[in-house]
């Protein structure tokens, strides 16, 4: 694989990851308007630990 193809593929993968992260944060802001991100993470961690 050439360097150019590698950097294009790497950029696409990083771009998709960033896009998913941004969409997730927007969803969190709409789903939990009165909660901070720290509270949300703590709540999710607690639910995950109980399973």
UniProtKB/TrEMBL annotation:
Name assigned to this protein: Light-harvesting complex 1 alpha chain
UniProt keyword annotations, A-Z: Membrane, Transmembrane, Transmembrane helix
Transmembrane parts of this sequence: 6-29
């Amino acid at each position: 694989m050439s360097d150019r193809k590698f950097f294009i593929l790497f950029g696409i993968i990083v771009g998709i990851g960033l896009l998913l992260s941004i969409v997730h944060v927007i969803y969190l802001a709409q789903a939990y308007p009165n909660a901070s991100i720290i509270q949300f993470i703590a709540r999710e961690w607690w639910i995950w630990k109980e399973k």
